[in-house]
Specification:
By secondary structure, the protein is mainly beta. Helix content is 12%, strand content 45%. The strands form two sheets. It has a four-stranded antiparallel sheet with strand order 1-2-3-4, with no helix packed on it. The protein has a two-stranded antiparallel ribbon with strand order 5-6.
Length: 98
């Protein structure tokens, strides 16, 4: 067995298989041009979504897995490229890169 094949075999043995659900669990509204970025909070209970319009973008923060809208930030010019959660003093801060 060559080194490359044994390396691939080790990778395949270490993978965890996940089954794709057969039904939609949560459906969120997107912007007119879709979503541009997603981020989960460190505890997995909040989901930040960057929504794209024609020349602007907005950010919505949802409770997960219920899908309840917690906050919506005002529209900004440009596209949201990245969203990141940071935990500060027991609260979450969302970092946005336009």
């Amino acid at each position: 067995m060559n080194v490359f094949l044994s390396y691939l075999l080790c990778i395949n043995l270490a993978m965890t298989l996940h089954q794709v659900p057969k039904k939609v669990g949560l459906q969120l509204e997107s912007g007119p041009r879709g979503g541009s970025a997603l981020a989960f909070s460190p505890d997995g209970r909040r989901l930040a979504v960057g929504l794209a319009a024609h020349t602007t973008a907005r950010i919505r923060i949802y409770e997960f897995p219920s899908g309840a809208l917690l906050a919506e930030l005002p529209e900004q010019y440009g596209l949201v490229y990245e969203l990141t959660f940071h935990q500060v003093s027991g609260r979450y801060l969302t970092e946005v890169e336009f």
